[in-house]
Design goal:
Two copies of one chain form a homodimer.
Chain A (H helix, E strand, L loop, with lengths): L2 H11 L1 H12 L11 H18 L2 E5 L6 E6 L7 E6 L19 E4 L5 E4 L7 H18 L6 E6 L9 H7 L1 H4 L3 E4 L11 E6 L1 E10 L5 E2 H4 L6 H10 L22 H8 L5 H6 L14 H7 L2 E10 L8 E2 L2 E10 L5 H13 L7 E10 L2 E2 L5 H14 L4 E5 L4 H10 L3 E4 L14 E3 H18 L2
Parallel strand pairs in A: 3-6, 3-7, 7-17, 8-16
Antiparallel strand pairs in A: 1-2, 2-6, 4-5, 5-18, 8-15, 8-17, 9-13, 9-14, 10-12, 11-13
Helix pairs in contact in A: 1-4, 1-15, 2-4, 4-15, 5-14, 13-15
Keywords (chains A, B): Hydrolase, Metal-binding, Protease
Pfam family, one (chains A, B): M20_dimer
Organism (chains A, B): Falsiroseomonas frigidaquae
Chain lengths: ~450, ~450
């Protein structure tokens, strides 16, 4: 029995223990965007530091101006080194009444189709994914007494809230953190049976705008139509972001967005993706974006502009005839290829200002930004990881794009000069960021096994 | 000393008592739109019934499917009879953090300019106004042992929440409630020194729309641009309600809206109204409505369409990259002349449906409706009331319009066949429906005196 086979057997034997540890983390309410949960975030970081020390890492939760960052080293092996990144923070849970159970009381449930899933906030994004990696390390240590490669683990607590403190932390600790390859677990498989490595990621530009009108809420009977209504101004501003063809109207928005290379378009064409299936899962059927482009191209290689939140005036039960003093919206742009987040932010702000009545005012709040990224999938580390994944899942792993943004990927590239293998075991129907988030039990178990294989492969 | 002079002297003597009673009502949290305050509404109705019995009325709080309606009779006098209407319910108080003090802990404050004001939710809308009428009755009874005319007082508890139960109540009790003239207190003076009788009132059509997209909240990275975003659909629907000239685009919206009669336009032109002053009070300067029309015409005799509330997606602190499953808006139309609320509601719903993607759905909630109204100001009761007001304030009272809607006015006309004298002592800067609502102490005291005079005048 090879070393790897013994590690894989150990993983299968210890599944109950692995689940117990995952549940312990899932019970911690590490909602990073809400200051009320700062203590929970700190406790979560401390939990990981202690767990990693128990495995044999030199680990600590390090304080930042925001939530702590966990750093753990085990560099006893020789050979090419790796830096693994995950995040322990989770999205808010509202609307809470749409959850079938307490988001922080995890459980393994069997779905109607027989699939076993781990239910709870963070199960897929990203606690289940990062614990899959940690469990792989634990198994290697248990069986062989050491890791196959020199390894550093970095766990962030602000991925869901803008991640403002990570760039400075990376810059300040370059020598300590730099490795030959980056490993990130925050991505999906192609489908439930096909593993994937993401080599193209969209960037992100997050922006909030608050339109201020009168210096108080007004009665719409006395002031209706005569006084500026921030709701109306905001609706007009937001509607004008799109033209009739579903294209974003900001000047220069599509600068640096080439048509998809023919070869890649061809490869993606073989994936059997259909808009009907993609949208059907969530109860939709009509692709909503740019007319004439297919949905896969849209979410992997075209930029987006989405209104993630908007609100103004009375939203409670019943009716209130008010003209609100302000209205606001949170907007995110997903970026591709060479789009510049800063130019797009400026174009958006100019778009708003151009549509403001003279007696109204706009306030802007920046919510993070990162460029799109693309890795050279011909690098040997990518080939090794691909083979390891293909061995575990019995099916060739594919190189794909991802509509989501993982800003840290870009940071690892720019701050530490590292390429990154993005391999995760999430699925499209995991409901991340939504009520009833889940992570398939198979994703967790075969995820652990996959990472164990990748760690072994990278040492060769 | 005439009977009236003795009544007025009694009013001035009893101001401390009158304030004490008003404060007792202002302390009751009678927010009718929020079911959590149903008990407070019932308590408020009971308070009035008991107070009116103490004055000598035959009074009771009568139950309805919603909040109780208080009815009180004192028909010992002879001569033409009157039905007085007021409402004891108040608007919600959010946003609470914009109040300088507890909305339900009333106080008399002296403003920077020396004006004394009664501060608290409902002080102007409508508790201060209705108690001014009740105190006038109390003074007549105290001095003469009876009221000058046969009188019924009706106090509603659902004026701020759609008033769905009042029409049925009026219809069911026509014989008991019918009188020669209606008296309503829920209006403003022209300015702080000029009393006014409102003879033109805008109607109202309140509507809520909820746009449903995917069957769950989605991650905007994975689904961005490809999946329908209810926020985006709603923004487009709302923006399309207005054209570049500030006119409402619903087909047929302006049917039954004539140009203002020349004589009325001329009379209004003498009032010294300016948009600068009107909007300046609330920190604005640019009239926002139909281009080419002045602001007074806009709020008194032109229809309006206002987005009173809208919301969808994540509105908390920080950022959440979600595509929400739904977004909603509350919209009110203020109606003039012969506009039909039902046709306008249907036109709005058609406007929404025409802009819905095939895989999305709209849900509609009706929030009350009432036509615009105009009284024949040549009627003798109007002349008597006008003279009484002019005597009290030492300045001729004016006949004006009002942008606000008082649906009960239309109900009294249609259900009971009554004309209504609308005389109130509110001011434009009372912040009704807003934080820090107030009612001038002068409005309260001279309001009581004015009603005492009107009651006397109507008996002659």
């Amino acid at each position: 029995m090879s070393e790897l086979d013994r590690v894989l057997a150990q993983i299968d034997r210890d599944m109950d223990g692995a689940l117990e540890r995952l549940f312990a983390v899932l019970r911690i309410k590490s909602i990073s965007t809400d200051p009320a949960f700062a203590g929970d975030c700190a406790a979560n970081a401390e939990w990981h530091a202690e767990d990693l020390r128990a495995i044999g890492f030199d680990a600590a939760a390090r304080s930042t101006p925001g939530h702590p960052i966990v750093v753990a080293h085990d560099r006893n092996a020789s050979g090419p080194s790796a830096l693994f990144y995950g995040h322990y923070d989770v999205q808010p849970v509202d609307p809470l009444d749409l959850w079938d159970r307490d988001p922080f009381d995890p459980v393994v449930e069997t779905q109607a189709d027989g699939t076993k899933v781990i239910r709870g906030r963070g199960s897929a994004d990203d606690k289940g994914q990062l614990m899959a990696f940690v469990e792989a390390c634990r198994a290697w240590k248990a069986v062989t007494g050491k890791l196959p490669i020199p390894l550093t683990i970095l766990l962030e607590g602000e991925e869901e809230s803008g991640g403002v403190n990570l760039p400075g932390f990376l810059d300040a600790n370059q020598d300590e953190l730099k490795a030959d390859i980056g490993l990130i677990c925050d991505t999906n498989m192609w489908d439930a049976t096909t593993p994937a490595i993401v080599t193209m990621l969209r960037g992100l530009c997050g922006e909030e705008v608050i339109i201020h009108g009168a210096d108080r809420d007004l009665h719409s009977g006395f002031y209706g139509m005569a006084a500026a209504n921030p709701n109306r101004i905001l609706a007009r501003i937001l509607a004008a972001l799109y033209d009739d063809q579903g294209r974003v109207t900001l000047p220069g928005f599509y600068d640096g967005v080439p048509e998809l290379p023919g070869q890649l378009r061809e490869q993606w064409g073989t994936l059997g993706f259909t808009a009907e299936k993609f949208l059907g899962v969530v109860g939709l059927s009509v692709p909503a974006g740019e007319k004439g482009r297919d949905a896969l191209e849209m979410v992997w290689s075209r930029p987006s502009c989405e209104i993630n939140g908007m609100g103004g005036g009375y939203q409670g039960e019943g009716f209130k005839t008010v003209i609100p003093a302000q209205a606001s919206a949170k907007i995110s742009f997903r970026l591709v290829f060479d789009q510049d987040p800063h130019r797009i932010r400026e174009a958006f702000r100019a778009h708003v200002r151009a549509r403001l009545p003279a007696d109204c005012r706009a306030e802007f709040i920046e919510h993070g930004s990162g460029r799109a990224i693309r890795f050279p999938d011909t690098d040997p580390a990518f080939a090794k990881a691909r083979k390891a994944l293909s061995d575990e899942w019995g099916k060739p792993a594919v190189f794909i794009g991802s509509g989501g943004s993982i800003p840290v990927t870009h940071m690892l590239k720019t701050s530490l000069g590292m390429d990154v293998v993005l391999a995760g075991f999430g699925l499209e129907d995991d409901r991340i960021h939504s009520p009833n988030e889940k992570y398939n039990l198979v994703s967790f178990q075969k995820g652990i096994r996959s990472w164990a294989r990748i760690l072994g492969a990278l040492s060769s």
